[in-house]
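note to self — DONT lose this again. spent like an hour looking for the file last time. sequence + predicted structure for the chain T wanted, 287 res
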Amino acid sequence: MPTMRRWIPLLPVLAGCTRVVSLEVDSGPTRLVVEGRIELRPGDGGGRQTILLTTTDRFDAIGPLPPATGATVVVQDDQGRQFVFSPSPIAGNPAYITTGLTPRVGGRYLLTIDYQGERYRAEHQLLAPPPLDSLYFRYEDAGLAQGDSGFRAVIDYTDPAGVKNYYLWELLVDGERRIAVDPGNRFRIISDDRFYDGGEVKGYQPYDEEVVEPGQVVTIRQLALSEAGFRYHFVLFEQTTGGGGPFSTPPTSVRGNVVNLTDPARYPLGFFFATQVAERSAVVPAR
């Protein structure tokens, strides 16, 4: 298994000398990372879908993960239709793209990836979230809990009764996705309805630390997760925002639902799912 050598200076001790210790750090095997999602979006007639493929990198690497080039990516639905995803023409872009794939609620979608002599596979049923009842904005003054003064996006929705529902929310501002996950919001941008099944959710702020400015166009996207998808995102956010304190969760590989059929021991990272998108957009008002 490959290792790398890193020089770590220790703090000066007693006589003021600096010791340099060479540590052999096991970097582990390179793994495929899959960020796959099939979306049923409102008003989308083109059926454009994107799957991102990257690979893991050294623990001290800086910058985005390396793209996984040369893969063959195919999605098949439960009606036998196949959709081939072509690599992005932009160098260094990890996206594989197809058009014409307009999914349906309840349909099942099978992802197959052939990469460097190995075959990977994942399957997911397309789930539907309830609609967003409203999107509006609330101005809050600076405080210890909410941070800077400014407007926050607020949503209302009604959870369907008698059905387990799992949610993921995304925030777009002027068309740009704000994807920062931190200890303050890591469990606000995902949720399960075990404590409010069938209830009306009022005044919820999935991104309560994100300030938006008057005149900006804000979109909240509400996505349905499966129970497995919720567990995956829960552990992923917990791992990436644990903070490194003495009571933090020990870091470990977060495994998703993609399996390596050729060599199960060389499992990939990431998750593949299919979802309908409920969304609302609004312009931030003047104060």
